[in-house]
Design goal:
It is a single chain. 30% of the residues lie in helices and 27% in strands. The chain has a five-stranded parallel beta sheet with strand order 3-2-1-4-5, with helices on both faces. Strands 12-15-18-23-20 form a five-stranded antiparallel beta sheet. The protein has a four-stranded antiparallel beta sheet with strand order 6-9-7-8, sandwiched between helices. A hairpin with a 5-residue loop joins strand 21 and strand 22. Helix 1 runs parallel beside helix 10 and helix 2 packs across helix 4.
């Protein structure tokens, strides 16, 4: 199977790594990829949100499957263009990707499908936003209706900060605060059926103790030893399958991975958000645990015929990923600083590095090229061992003024 992965971040490096390890994959390409994917795939420099350029590349490479990483690619209609040209694509078309591109649309789907979620109001004006903030009270939850790279949500007890975010976004969804731990569950979908992957937990706040601004994610771990054993089956029957059924009823078949961000509240499971792609950095730990070859699974989603009774096999043990981020992340990350110590980090038992925001400069030096620069993955027989491996590897890496959380998976 000849596979093309679209995107350039840590999620895409994790996907490429899983595909590279699948014996069914005979040729692996990334566009644009990063210095990490260059070691296991052929990188191609193009804008992955350009449907014409992507379709031309898929034709030139004669690929059997295109795997879309970032949400912006989906919202740009790349999946639509690929399918029209006859290429199997793992990732929803533009219409179905609205489940992430518009928080209001997601709430509409959830309401129609009877999916449990927070009460919410869609606000188009300042007056509407202020009335909604009055109604729900603190902690205030304000979500940009559109895409915001994982940073469009503000959860705060500060009324002024909530109002400021609402005003800056324009159209927002304001909703009740959901208590309880959060869990991420990915489900592979072929437009009709869905198959779950392993639950994970990520850490959205920038600093230890869940302090600071929301980010795209500062770390994750899987599996979750504390999660109820019936959780996956419950979420599939009450959240994922009803949403897939509702989209299909509207003639918007959902093909790809449906990400359900969940809160395990005192009143039961509630959906925090849906995303139309693999979450980052949860993908890095979930795919590390996946023992079932991934390419055939993704292709079954793209062309139809996913067996709803199938359950993937998983490696025993656990995986933990820690994000090393650049100075200034998430507000204004500093780019261009040199990264060293990766060879030493990779020698740590049970650890490896996934590139997220990196590039090579004119002198061939590895430098930071984004906010979340590296994903350091630790593995082991349990979460504690995996966590220790990840942090030992992090300690070997040098990036000026970088920061990372020290409490990822501190159970």
């Amino acid at each position: 199977m000849r596979v093309l992965v679209l995107g350039s971040g840590g999620r895409e490096h994790a996907l490429a790594r899983a595909l590279h390890r699948d014996p069914a994959v005979t040729a692996l390409h990334c566009a644009p990829g990063n210095p990490g994917t260059a070691g296991i795939a052929d990188n191609h420099q193009l804008d992955p949100t350009d449907p014409v350029a992507v379709t031309e590349l898929a034709g030139r490479l004669r690929v059997d499957l295109v795997v879309v990483g970032p949400e912006a690619v989906l919202v740009a209609g790349v999946g639509d263009a690929l399918r029209k040209a006859g290429f199997p694509c793992f990732g929803p078309d533009r219409a179905a990707a609205r489940i992430e591109a518009s928080k209001a649309f997601a709430k509409e789907i959830m309401a129609a499908a009877g999916v449990p979620t927070a009460d919410a109001r869609v606000c188009d004006t300042t007056a509407e936003a202020e009335r909604a903030l009055d109604a729900f009270g603190p902690p205030y939850v304000v979500k940009d209706d559109g895409l915001a790279a994982g940073k469009g949500v503000v959860v705060t007890g500060d009324r002024a900060a909530a109002s400021e975010h609402a005003g800056a976004c324009g159209r927002v969804v304001i909703e009740e605060f959901l208590d309880g731990p959060e869990v991420s569950l990915f489900a592979l979908c072929d437009g009709e059926h869905a198959v779950p992957l392993l639950p994970a937990q990520d850490f959205k706040r920038a600093y230890d103790g869940d302090e600071g601004p929301n980010t795209g994610g500062m770390g994750a771990y899987s599996p979750l030893p504390w999660a109820p054993p019936e959780l996956v089956d419950e979420v599939m029957s009450t959240v994922v399958q009803p949403a897939v059924d509702e989209l299909r009823r509207r003639e918007i078949p959902y093909v790809g991975v449906l990400y359900a961000g969940l809160a395990l509240t005192s009143k039961g499971v509630r959906v925090v958000e849906f995303n139309a792609r693999f979450g980052d950095p949860e993908t890095q730990v979930v795919l590390d645990r996946l023992a079932t070859p991934i390419a055939t699974l993704l292709q079954a989603c793209a062309i139809g015929g996913l067996d709803p009774a199938f359950r993937p096999e998983w490696h025993p043990g656990a995986a933990v990923t820690v994000v090393v981020s650049a100075e200034g992340y998430p507000a204004t990350p500093v780019k261009g600083d040199e990264i060293t110590g990766l060879d030493e980090a990779a020698k740590v038992e049970g650890a490896y590095i996934l590139h997220a925001g990196t590039k090579l400069d004119a002198d061939g030096r590895l430098i930071a090229n984004g906010g979340r620069v590296l994903n350091v993955v630790g593995t082991g027989p349990d979460v504690a061992t995996a966590r220790a491996s990840a942090y030992e590897a992090v300690s070997k890496i040098t990036l000026r003024a970088s920061h990372h959380r020290t409490d990822i998976a501190d159970l």
